[in-house]
Specification:
UDP-N-acetylmuramoyl-L-alanine:D-glutamate ligase; globular; 25% strand
């Protein structure tokens, strides 16, 4: 059994789901939810209470694979925090390193979801989930994970660096999926990639780090900073290298999207879960794609996460 520590956010997600009032309306090159008038009352078809956040979503993937999943995140002692703990306990995630804020409520999102097309708008109160400087990197000496999986730390590069340096000292492997806030300081992020074993970004994020218009160009530049790189590109699939093998891959399956929330977390954590299961680089990419596809077919960021022994069908993937 492999121990994996997820460092990231924990959120309570409230879905408001409707088939007509949340239908997108085109305005130029952008879309808005155009049928809701200020001051009106709108009847919603369905309400769904879920949990999410990069830390929660990844930890659930690792737990469903039978690994020792540990979560380090901030919540508060409130109803939303209790809901997150209940789900994590049910999934078998170690919550002993979750901290409780007395200054902020548990982070929460209200997700407006069009049930016909799967389009969504997310209103997020970050709350306790945006804080990371209260975590002590020396806890890694106690937890002793085999892998540290890091999602966005809301731009707290100082704390990120401390964890990366401690992980290197303890020979803990690291997979990093940065967020928008980290990428605002691209030069510092590039300097930290020497501590990272696997970097996951989408095409737009990769373009914030290095020059390049195509996936191949972006990969060429990024591989100078990190031993393994995965760049995803939505419906176009993606590209990945581990320094020895390079693959272009397409979608695992063309499915109707019910809710895209958590798709990136499912891909990244699915890749790492399959890797520590002993799968090859190619097989891990296939599982990552399958895990991401399964998540977008259900409402909620982690309800569709796959278990370890699920049978997979072939998908477009080519060694280059």
């Amino acid at each position: 059994m492999t121990k994996i520590l997820s460092l990231g956010s924990a959120l309570n997600d409230i879905y408001l789901i409707d088939h007509d009032d949340l239908t997108p309306t085109e305005i130029g090159e952008e879309s808005i939810f155009g049928k809701i008038l200020v001051g009106s009352k709108v009847d919603i078809d369905k309400l769904s209470y879920e949990v999410g956040g990069g830390g929660v979503n990844s930890a659930i993937t690792f737990a469903r694979h039978g690994h020792e999943a540990v979560l380090m995140a901030n919540i508060a002692k409130d109803t939303a925090g209790d809901a997150i703990l209940n789900v994590l306990d049910r999934e078998g995630v170690d919550t002993g390193y979750i901290e409780y804020s007395d200054k902020h409520a548990t982070g929460s999102s209200v997700i407006l979801l069009d049930s016909r097309g799967g389009e969504r708008t997310i209103l997020t109160y970050r709350g306790a989930s945006k804080i990371f400087d209260n975590f002590d990197p020396n806890l890694l000496e106690i937890i002793r994970p085999d892998w540290l999986y890091i999602t966005t730390m809301r731009g707290d590069l100082k704390t990120l660096k401390k964890f990366l340096e401690k992980a290197r000292e303890l020979e803990i492997k690291v997979m990093f999926n940065p967020g928008v806030k980290e990428l605002e300081d691209n030069s510092k992020v590039l300097g930290l990639l020497k501590y990272v074993n696997v970097l996951l970004v989408n095409k737009s994020e990769a373009g914030k780090l290095v020059p390049g218009g195509s996936l191949e160009e972006l990969l060429y530049h990024l591989k100078n900073y990190c031993e393994a790189i995965i760049i995803t590109d939505g419906a176009m699939g993606g590209i990945a290298t581990n320094g020895e093998e390079t693959y272009r891959f397409g979608l695992y399956e063309d499915v109707k999207i019910k809710d895209a929330t958590g798709a990136g977390d499912a891909f990244g954590s699915g890749f790492l879960a399959a890797t520590v299961d002993g799968k090859s680089f190619r097989q891990a990419l296939i599982f990552a794609s399958a895990n991401s596809t399964a998540v977008i077919t259900k409402i909620g960021a982690n309800r569709g996460i796959l278990a370890r022994k699920v049978k997979l069908h072939p998908m477009p993937i080519q060694k280059i």
